[in-house]
Design brief:
CATH topology of the largest domain: Homing Intron 3 (I-Ppo) Encoded Endonuclease, Chain A
Distance between the termini: 38 Å
Largest sheet: 5 strands, antiparallel
Strand order of the largest sheet: 1-5-4-3-2
Order of helices and strands: EHEEEEEEEHEEHHEHHHH
CATH architecture of the largest domain: Alpha-Beta Complex
Number of strands: 11
Structural class: alpha+beta
Radius of gyration: 20 Å
Helix content: 40-55%
Strand content: 15-25%
CATH class of the largest domain: Alpha Beta
Length: 240
């Protein structure tokens, strides 16, 4: 389920750092500290609603590039409070209530923390299952409790070289758009490149996989295709 939103309002939210780019392997998605998720894959942006599981946990289905399910708390923490990829922990809730999915209520926890909130969540789910109203709502949503959840790629702290490359990509793309006239498809691609790199610029952590996915989009204009290929080569060289 999704609803259209005003692109000017959404752009302002991004500029104010109320929304941040999610580090998924493809797609143009943003998330707020209140776990509101927005798609900018089309000219008209949309808010995408999460799907609640029986325990109250929330998942979201995104095109990345196939339909893929993600754990909303993982998306939220990975975007605003990324952890060291070598220090594996799991999203947990301070109040043990997975329906309260906001950045203030989340933290990276260990197995003991997970067991604590899951026990309480399962107890609440068992109580809810006793009511026919809840059973009907689950059936209506078509929830599959066995859905495989994709792991969110780790964010990285940018080096000075990567920051310089990001600035170069932004400036070059802006110059190409201002000095040339392109068809709608090419213009949309250039705008997408500019926006993604601009919104990742000057952040403490960079959504590396999401930025890399931009270079995999086919450019209809031959000159832009060559430019994108060179961007891709430099990007891989810098982050390798």
């Amino acid at each position: 389920m999704s609803t259209y939103v005003d692109p000017i309002w959404l752009q302002k939210k991004i500029e104010d750092d109320d929304l941040r780019l999610i580090n998924v392997k493809a797609g143009h998605y943003y998330i707020s500290r209140q776990a509101e998720i927005y798609s900018m894959n089309m000219a008209q942006p949309r808010r995408i609603m999460p799907i609640p599981k029986l325990t109250g946990e929330q998942i979201i289905v995104l095109y990345t590039p196939q339909l893929t399910a993600y754990d909303v708390p993982s998306l939220l923490l990975s975007t605003f409070m990324p952890m060291d990829e070598n220090n594996y922990k799991t999203p947990c809730y301070h109040d043990c209530d997975p329906t309260n999915c906001t950045i203030d209520n989340l933290f990276w926890g260990d197995e003991t923390d997970v067991l604590k909130w899951r026990k309480q969540a399962m107890r609440r789910a068992a109580e809810l299952e006793k009511t026919s109203e809840h059973e009907e709502s689950q059936e209506a949503e078509g929830i599959d409790e066995s859905t495989v959840i994709e792991q969110v790629p780790s964010m990285v702290q940018p080096s000075k070289l990567l920051t310089s490359l990001i600035e170069m990509i932004i400036n070059t793309t802006q110059r190409m758009m201002s000095h040339n006239v392109y068809d709608d498809e090419t213009q949309f691609l250039l705008r997408m490149v500019e926006m993604r790199f601009k919104h990742a610029h000057n952040k403490e952590y960079i959504p590396l996989e999401n930025l890399r996915s931009v270079f995999e989009v086919e450019a209809p204009d031959p000159k832009i295709a060559i430019m994108m290929k060179r961007f891709h080569e430099r990007f891989d060289k810098v982050v390798s």
